[in-house]
C-alpha cells in the first residue's frame, strides 16, 4: 500500500474529531500547552515502564492512549494553522520511511533503548513551539519537524500509528459527542421480560425515625435497610440512587438486578459473568469510590460535566463487563443525573426515584406528590 493510501484514514479522523474541539479557534496557546502536557505524559509513562519493567502491566495501553491524546492536540494545531494534516504525514512518511508502520499493523517490538532520546527531542521541539506561539510562520515551518519526531518516537515504542489514531477517535467521540440512541446497546433485548431491568420504575425511598433508609418497589420492601455507616453522616444511606441511575441510563446494574431479583438466569454464562457476585462488587466499589470523590465537588452541584480523567478510571473499573461498551458520554449522563436525584433525596430524607429506560433518564418526585398510597 502506498503512503497516500496508508494515511487516508486521517481525512476521516479530521472530519470526525473537529466537533470535539471545544477550544477557541482563535487561540493557539491552550493547544500548544495541551500538546506539551501530553508529550510529558508520554515521557512519564515511558519512565514508569523502564523503572518497573513487567510490573507496569498497563504500559502499552497507557502509552498508546498518551500518543493518541498528543495527536489530538497536533491535529488541533494544524487546523488553527490551516495545515493539511494528511500532507504533513505523507511527507513525513516518505522522509522517515515510516510508511509501512502507518499503512500496515506493525510487528510486536520491544521498547528501543533509543526511545528516551527520541522523547527528549520530541519534548524539546514541543517546548520550542511554545516559545514561538506568537509567530505563526515559525509554527508552520516547525510542524513537519514535530510530525517527524512524533513518528520516530512512536515507531521506537513499537506501536501502530493507525491503532493509536483510531483509538483516540473512538475514545474522544465517546466522551464528547451525544450518542445516537439507535446506536446504543440494550443488554436485555434478548432475554425474557421477567429477566429484564424494568423499562420504567418508581422506587420509594423512606427514612424512618431510627435513621434507617428503606426501599419500596410496587408496594414491597426490597433490599436491606441502610445507614451511612460512618461517624460523620454524608447521605451514603441513599446510594442506591446511583444503581438506579446506572439501570435507567446505562441499562446496566447488577446491584439493582439483585435488589429486584431480575437476573438473567436463562443464560447461565450471563448470570454468572455479568450479573453475579463479582460484578456486584465492581459496581459497589465504583459507586463508593466515586461518592468519595464527589464529596469534594459538593456532590456535583452546579457541574455540567465530569472530569475526563474520572471517566477513564471508570472505564478501567468496568473492563470485562458488558457496560464497557457504553460511551463515556453516557457514563457522564448517568453520573450527573444520578447525583441530581441524590441531592434531592438527601435534602428531603427520601422521596420517589423515577427511572425511564426508554429515554435513559432518572428523576425525582417528593413523596406526597401524585397518587402515592
Describe the structure.
With 373 residues, the protein is α+β, with helices and mostly antiparallel strands. The chain folds into two domains: 3-177, no CATH class; 182-365, no CATH class. It is built from 15 helices and five strands. It has a five-stranded antiparallel sheet, with helices on one face. The longest helix has 24 residues, at 29-52. The chain starts with a helix and ends in an 8-residue tail after the last strand. The relative contact order is 0.10. Mean pLDDT is 87; it is low at 1-5 and 97-109.
From the alpha-carbon coordinates, what is the Rg to the nearest angstrom?
25 Å
Taken from the alpha-carbon principal axes, the silhouette is elongated
* Individual helix count: 15
Number of domains: 2
Percentage beta strand = 5-15%
Question: Helices, strands, pairings?
Answer:
Blueprint: H1 3-6, H2 9-17, H3 29-52, H4 59-80, H5 85-96, H6 99-103, H7 115-131, H8 136-157, H9 161-176, E1 200-207, E2 213-217, E3 220-226, H10 240-250, H11 254-260, H12 268-273, H13 277-295, H14 308-317, H15 328-348, E4 350-356, E5 361-365
Antiparallel strand pairs: 1-2, 1-4, 2-3, 4-5
Helix pairs in contact: 2-9, 3-4, 3-7, 4-9, 5-8, 7-8, 9-15, 10-11, 10-15
